[in-house]
């Protein structure tokens, strides 16, 4: 080969090698810059876990590890606030997105939820609830449709609907639950058994009655009663006195089963990285189709029945009230009413989903705390007997009207204290650039009110008072809340105040509480939930002593699903009297 040829091939080799090296170098530099760009970016000044900023996935792997064991997202959040020891900090739980801001101070959380217009319903929740269709809680507060939708439902948390329509049903359902528990108590012969499904069944029946009333005949509790009353003591599996009896769970009708399982979809979509994609994937699955075809068939039929009843002059159920309100709104606005519409189906189905596990779980929690704190249980029973003397003297359960009119501060305090101890964190999204406790927070950040740690279940962290927002500075404080008492203990007395005349009253504003959220987007069904828990738990405590259970069946572990639900609710019962 001529020298020139050798030179030419060498230089072309070198130049292609250079190009290759250049390409490799550029790829490496590019990948490095991309990696750096994708790493979590903390907001200036706000404490964070530095290790999390070295990984593309931020805090997510550590969070998943803890939650896969405990099931408790609220507790993980509280641990982050505790670790950083500041009333505001940031975590990186969604890769490639802005940090999530954790607010671990009650007064600032209250300010954000109640007074600050720059915070909105979060988009990730709106997307996460996509399976429930077009209902009011998926609308932003500043969307004019939100108020119009709330208007449609305006009668349903009013005293007339609650006390005259829902109350008597809830009372009857409570008595049915007592009957079921009594049958189980007899069969279990002093052994413990789980009551969690029974509370869920009672709560499910309540939501079905709320929506459709007597137009829909299926019940979740009736088949259980029937199944248990057909059981012979010889059919109970033998076991020691601390070994729980497992009772059969009688199947419910397809629609009730669908309502029971629909929250599974929401739990998956709200935590998905892309809720819309997760929703699409799930909507292809047979189990999903089964749930939502039930919704389509049954709720549509019920809507037609409600329209028919309304036209015949009957307005009792939630569905009938919606139809009536839509007619009134349409007349006012000079448009055709949309009575038979998807919107009506979605609003009513979403309420059933919102009110079932939440309330059933809360009744389970009350049962657990009263079991674990027998002194409080005895106090509550005494308070019930002395507030309802005729029923006590006549050895019968109180009627709904007696219960409704009785003033029983200790009962309200027990419910309030249970909600305080079983927190579910809530989120808002910044709709514009703003500040929290003096730190700049850009538009589009998720802000979580962490109510399972400092300021709620442990003493408040110090706050620079000057850094609070003007509305927070101006707000009234709760002077008598005693943070030196163990805040993790169940102590209903915290919510009672003694007046100058010696009378004792319940004060719902005595301490930090976000059990139902706060402000315009607080729990819409709060009054119904409170009525239900109050009525049913009064009947349970009136009728039974909740005896101690083995340690392995107790504990206060929860599960953060659509609300904070107890993992187990075991009871060992003794009937109080012969009524
Ligand atoms: C003990 C039972 C219940 C608990 C603990 C509970 C708790 C909550 C919480 C913490 C929120 C979020 C509040 C916020 O972000 O500020 C909420 C929202 C909501 N709840 Fe409940 N809830 C219960 C029962 C019910 C019932 C019975 C219904 C329906 C009848 C219901 C309907 C709703 C709705 C529609 C929302 C969304 C409100 C909105 O975005 O505007 N809840 N609930």
TrEMBL record:
Keywords, sorted A to Z: Heme, Iron, Membrane, Metal-binding, Monooxygenase, Oxidoreductase, Transmembrane, Transmembrane helix
Residues annotated to bind heme: 523
Transmembrane segments: 20-39
Cofactor(s) demanded: heme
SUPFAM superfamilies: Cytochrome P450
GO terms for MF: heme binding; iron ion binding; monooxygenase activity; oxidoreductase activity, acting on paired donors, with incorporation or reduction of molecular oxygen
Keyword Acetylation: no
Domain of life, per lineage: Eukaryota
Family assignment from sequence similarity: Belongs to the cytochrome P450 family.
Protein name in the entry: Cytochrome P450
Source organism of the structure: Cercophora samala
